[in-house]
Amino acid sequence: MSNASNNLISLEIVNKIKKKIFSGDFKRNERLVETSIAIENNVNKIHVHKAFQQLAAEGLLEYKPRRGFFVLGVDESDFLEIVKIREIMENSIMEKFLSIADDEIIDNCIKIIKRKIAFLKSGLLDDADSETVKFFKEVNNSIPYKHIPRLLRQYQKYLMSIIQTDFKIREDVKITIKTTEILLEALEKRDIKLANKWIALRHDNLVKSCQKNIQHLPKTVGPNIDKEYDFEI
């Protein structure tokens, strides 16, 4: 079997375990047994061990010598902290973009955001999502940062795995239209403060809209000085 195939198998195990951790099926401090998970998924223990190592690197499992891997999981404060980290990184990106992008790029972004608003108002949510992807691609291609956009994508995947939320509900769309209109104004005026306001509102709305989705996460029980996050980028 090729390395690519092996990696895909391990990634599949990673995603399955993440889903069980975030849904609460695997509890904090629960010991995960490689053999049991290998049998359950009909895979070699090597793939499960590699998946465990990846999850430990992401701060979701903890390895204890001679005892094995245990679930660390996430709590509500972890979720809120990740949202805040994402907000800080997006502010950094937008501030750089608005300060260095030429008029042609800004004009193109304005057209993209206007199309997004039109799609949202028409209920064409998939098309609106496509315009969002185009916008962030344009922004990321216009700035000298390489690692921040990659980290941002990793945190985005992590958040979506936790909340498992559905964007396509009427209330969320109405709010998204209002916040996107703020982004449009920020682009038209090259106004960093307005861009910061747009980002802050996006993240506030994310937390509010996901309250039901994160109720299954445990409340913070106090700091864990042994817990480290080391997201693979």
Describe the structure.
This protein is mainly α and 233 residues long. It folds into two domains: 3-71, Winged helix-like DNA-binding domain superfamily/Winged helix DNA-binding domain (Arc Repressor Mutant, subunit A), CATH 1.10.10.10; 76-209, GntR ligand-binding domain-like (Four Helix Bundle (Hemerythrin (Met), subunit A)). Helices cover 69% and strands 4% of the residues. The chain has helices at residues 3-23, 34-41, 45-57, 76-100, 103-122, 125-142, 147-163, 170-189, 192-209, and strands at residues 31-32, 61-64, 68-71. The protein has a three-stranded antiparallel β-sheet with strand order 1-3-2. A hairpin with a 3-residue loop joins strand 2 (61-64) and strand 3. Helix 5 packs antiparallel against helix 8 (170-189). The longest helix is centred in the middle third of the chain and has 25 residues, at 76-100.
How many domain units?
A: 2
The level of helicity is 55-70%
Sheet/helix structural class: mainly alpha
- The CATH topology label of the largest domain is Four Helix Bundle (Hemerythrin (Met), subunit A)
The largest pleated sheet is described as: 3 strands, antiparallel
What is the CATH C level class of the largest domain, in words?
Mainly Alpha
CATH homology-level superfamily of the largest domain: GntR ligand-binding domain-like
Question: Taking strands numbered 1, 2, ... along the chain, how are they ordered across the largest sheet?
Answer: 1-3-2
> What is the rounded Rg?
20 Å
In CATH terms, what is the architecture of the largest domain?
A: Up-down Bundle
